[in-house]
Amino acid sequence: MELNKKILVGTVGYHLLSNHSVGPVLLPFLKKLDWPVGVSVEELNWGPIAIIQQFQAMETPYDRVVLLVAIERPGRETGDISLFRWNGGLPGEEQIQACIGDAATGVISVDNLLIIGEYFKVWPKEVFLVDVEPGAEKAGEHLTTEVGVKVPEILKTVQRIATGGMAGMENIEYLNGEQLFL
Amino acid sequence: MCFKNLPIAFDEAGNAYLKEGVADPYEYKVVDLGVEQDKLKSLMAKNGFIRDVDYDPVTRVAGALAFHSVVDLEDRKVMSTNSMATLFRGYEIILKGRDPRDAAYISSRACGVCGGVHATTSALAIEMALGIKPPPLGIVMRNILLALEYLYDHPLHLFLLAGPDYSEELIAATNPELLEKAAKTAAKNESVHGYKSILDIMKDLNPLKGKLYLEALSMTRVAREAYVAIGGKYPHPQSVVPGGISVTVNISTLNEVYSRLIKFFDYGQKVTGIWDDVFDFFLESNPDYAKCGIRPATIADTGVWDRPDYYDGTFENCDTWGNARWATPGILLNGEVVTTNLRELNAGMEEFVEHSYYEKWNGQRFKTDPLGMPLSPNHPWNKETVPKPGKQSWRDRYSWDTCPTWDRMPMEAGAYARMYLTAKAQKAPASKFLENTGHGMKINVPKHRLPETTLEWKIPKDWNAFERNRARAYCIPYSALVAMENWLIAHKLIREGETKVSTPFEIPKKGTHIGFGAWGAGRGFLTHHLIVEKGVIQNYQIVTPSTLNAAPRTPWGEPGPYEEAVLNTPILENYDKPENYKGIDILRAIRSFDPCMPCTTHIMAKDTGHVVTREVTTCACGIE
After folding, report:
1. Under 8 Å between Cβ of A60 and A4
2. Cβ(B592)–Cβ(B5) under 8 Å?
3. Inter-chain contact B63–A105, Cβ cutoff 8 Å?
């Protein structure tokens, strides 16, 4: 791990939505991993506004944030793991207002979290998403087999992104706020 | 005699009975909405200025609401309206067959803002059904918790959701002529909020950048911090249970709450000053604004904040403990109090589904309440939730919301309802902070950084969009001071050693037990009706404030509150051609109700009745 880095590993997603809940389901496993000093693991479902306010109140900001999420994206098979790096940028003001409105009224969404964090300038330079393809949304307490078999790889990926350097991130894609809601 | 339309009469001793000699006492006529639609269609074909104006979704509200209107842009009037809840709420189905102790936790998830009130209302329903009386400190802490929830909710609505409608940016786009006047109009409450002119306030109401918008965001944090000291977490508290609360409360807890609560003393003064100035400006600038969102003050409220020396959870005593609440339950008809009794409030409730995507249920399991007052087959204790998705049609079914009525009348709900009823009925207990005058409420705000003062909310002549929001602003100091009064009681109880916060209970494995919880959400009226049978939930019905406000037409054709308010709204926006019309007056009217659709409508039970999807299942475009 790079020295003296303060790192947050966060999980975002509704509970009880099977693969869409990969973050909440894997949170206890993430917490049990052997993390170096400086890394904290938290559920980040308690509202983007509250999260941003907590970031704003911190004396020492995070150097890196890694979010474990599951978002349906075209062209992926269920269980595929993609890496994204947040590249900043914002949509129009009406969309930002909508994100804040949704956030303040309880909607859990990583897109909202990214946009609101960007708007209030709380993100460190290094924000990464480990994004697991969940397939179509359905109810359930457990992950399906396709995602279940990937759990060791998901955990390893999160750990590698959180504690490793930038090496090995050749396949990373970039997420831009301007395009998030197109 | 509070019922005019339901077949319920009272004998000389005050006992209710079903009127005799009526063949089908609860029958009603279903009006064909197609006649109106045919007329509109023909008018639209002849006149290019008569147009469909659809808002799908209505933005800056919580959850999925769509609104259809037919507007005559030449005569500047609204001709027809339809309010559409676009998602199905499945909580009644989810809760069936579960242990009653699950209800508080599951029903809390009905809303991402007011989870605490759903949990509490659920706890109250179970307390009534199973005969559980919480200890005084449990009752008092619940009161404080829910007052804090309102202190999160009201600033959020006033500045993040509705506030931008009165901001410089929006007015510049819709009524720029007002800005010059706003610049020249001095703000009457400058000494409280610090703004010299109305335009200065409007600039700080601008979304995202305005100081008032950003300050409201930071005040939501203050309220949340105090809330979690009792609830454990926000928005879904972990500590609200039937029989009280499940966390130990000590002086440290109270101090944590107090250090946040007092910030709302100053903030309450500031917010009421801001909105008094802004709304007075609008109403003085153009008296026609008084018609924006106007409808009679025909309002229902469940009341809230139980007195620890009165509340025993029983149905038998619900009128007594209900009337002792800091916010009085009841019904207002055109501004006059019809009843403040929870039993009558309960017995007058019905839900209709003629214009909603539900099947009509059969049977009438409960012909009376536990004390013999007649109940309709359409009463929540008799209702079953049977979703029936189908084609959307203004002539037939167009909403996932049901149509609740009281005594066969659509009722409005809101935070303001609890203040209106309490002020008018004058039944709430004597208080050092609050005085109900019959024509308003005086709120004695203690000193914090601003000097102490007495604020006065006055019952308005017209019940319109501006007055809804003005009253909601006054609900901030009102809620803060009810919390303060309860905080003082909590201190006294702890000093006296009454530190018990909950009453243990068992779930009976036999028999049928019914109850209802009645407690105000941030947006007003909220009831949970519960039947426990053989130890599990046999039926559960939730009526939320937005179930009332967003209701579609009654079977007999009367519009729901949003629909009526928008029908009465004049088009005061300036536009040079119909294509540039933005619909701000209609949006102000709808948003003044503080729509919160997550608890009105929820997750789509697809195929199995359990599959969750956030897909919006309807669209106003191209509907008959």
Report:
1. no
2. no
3. yes
A3 has a pLDDT exceeding 80: no
Question: Among A171, B60, A119, which residue's Cα sits nearest to residue A111?
Answer: A119
Residues 6+ apart with CB under 8 A from B306: B139, B142, B143, B321, B324, B325
Q: Is B611's pLDDT higher than 50?
A: no
State in Å, rounded, how far the first CA of chain A is from the last one: 36
Using an 8 Å Cβ cutoff, are B345 and B302 in contact?
yes
> What b/e string do you get for A62-100 counting C-beta neighbours within 10 Å, with b at 16 or more?
bebbbbbbbbeeeebebbbbbbbbbeeebbeeebbbbbb
Among the partner-chain residues A49, A105, A139, the one whose CB lies closest to the CB of B610 is: A139
- Nearest residue of chain B to residue A98 (CA atoms): B60
Reported CATH class of domain A7-142? alpha beta
Structure confidence at residue B609 (pLDDT): 34
Tokens representing B353? 């589904």
Residues from B contacting A (CB-CB < 8 Å) are 59-63, 111-113, 115, 156, 160-161, 164, 207-208, 217-218, 220-221, 224, 233-235, 596, 598, 610-614
Whether the bond into B561 is cis, omega within 30 of 0: no
This prediction's pTM = 0.92
Given a cut of 80, is residue B48 above it in pLDDT? yes
Tokens of B589: 């009217």
- Helices H / strands E in chain A, number of each: 6, 6
**CA separation for the pair B474, B279 (Å, rounded):** 13
Q: Closest approach of chain A CAs to the CA of B513, in angstroms?
A: 30
Tokens of A37: 């000093």
For B298-450, where are the E strands, in sequence order? 299-301, 330-333, 336-339, 349-352, 403-406, 434-436, 440-445
Q: How confident is the model at residue B578 (pLDDT cuts 50, 70, 90)?
A: confident
Within 8 A by CB and 6+ apart from B528, the residues are B103, B107, B118, B121, B122, B124, B125, B516, B517, B540, B541, B542
Question: Which tens digit of pLDDT belongs to each residue from A112-146?
Answer: 999 999 999 999 999 999 999 999 998 899 999 99
* Distances, alpha carbon A22 to alpha carbons A15, A86, A156, in Å: 9, 20, 14
Give chain B's domains with CATH numbers: 8-130+137-171+195-569+580-599 (1.10.645.10)
Residue with tokens 């949704």: A102
Query: Which residue on chain A is closest to B614 by alpha carbon?
Result: A137
Kindly state the average pLDDT of the residues A96-103.
90
- The CA distance from A17 to the nearest CA of chain B, in Å, is 8
Mutate to test the interface with B, among A105, A108, A112, A181 (most CBs of B within 10 A): A105
